[in-house]
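Provenance

Sequences were taken from public entries as deposited. Structures were produced by running a predictor on each sequence independently, with no templates supplied. The record for 2-amino-3-carboxymuconate-6-semialdehyde decarboxylase from Spongiactinospora rosea is shown for reference.
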Amino acid sequence: MTVIDVHAHIFPEITREESRIISADAGPWLRVHGDGTGMMMSGEDEYRPVTAGLWEPERRLADMDARGIDVQAVSSTPLLFGYGADPARAADWCDLVNERILAHCAGAPDRLLPLCQVPLQDVDLAVDTMTKAIASGHRGVHLGNHVGERYLDRPELVEFLAHCGNEGVPVLVHPWDMLGADRMGHHMLSWLVGMPAETQLSILGLILTGAFERLPESLKLCFCHGGGSFAYLLGRVENAWRNRDLVRAHSPRPPSEYVSRFYVDSAVFDPRALRLLVEVMGADRVMLGTDYPFPLGEQEPGAVVRGCAELTDADRARIFAGNAREFFEPVSP
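Predicted structure for 2-amino-3-carboxymuconate-6-semialdehyde decarboxylase:
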């Protein structure tokens, strides 16, 4: 059975000097140690230790072979987004990152699908950057779920998503810069609590503000990490929509009717959670995602999908590859 991983990261070999394109003091770069390990850096500060699969395509492909992954969609590590920078500098930065992602994937174009990033703080520049990237070979766009206080339901960001839908460019949305960081500075709670909350917040924003009503049906949108806490709390949201006019003021249909407007990945790490996710979303809206190569990702890709007894073989085939094939249908330059 073919296996396509839609959620896998890259941090290209960017030097300290190159990082000054985005920030003189705190630009992200990669310190490579030469022994298969490295350190993601933010200026002079160490951010996170990492391993070579994050930047070496040969190591990535070897890991894919060992773990039974046929194809990966390769997207930047969120530290690279650069949303807080001056838009012109951010556009130059995104061009650099996108070139490095393309180079990383170039040796195995049938196995590595490059996803570009854009300066989302300026919609016109974001459109221009994405247009160049798609023309050069990128297969989709990777976005953070918000830009400062602006979430994806803001009119200007809805405009960008609509452009993606009209152009047939698939969009992968990843949580980042998590809310409540001042209360979750220990035990990786920003990742364990903040990330699911950020993702649910983004999905509900698109539903309850009526943004999905303004977006084309052609938009292919996928939220990482199983859609966060959305599936588990949908009943709570549905109850609120039915009983409070404040909740349903801008959303003409029950929240559950919008699950056909987006995809989620399968990175929920428990067969019981996956069963609920598939029950809520449908097997045609879930795609395998591992969060490679980070320790909080799925270490045995596909094990949860295989271990969910309620799934049929047809369900597994869709989750492992069928849905991703449809999602990443070639984009015409």
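The first helix runs from residue 16 to 19.
Residues 238 and 254 are 6 Å apart (CA to CA).
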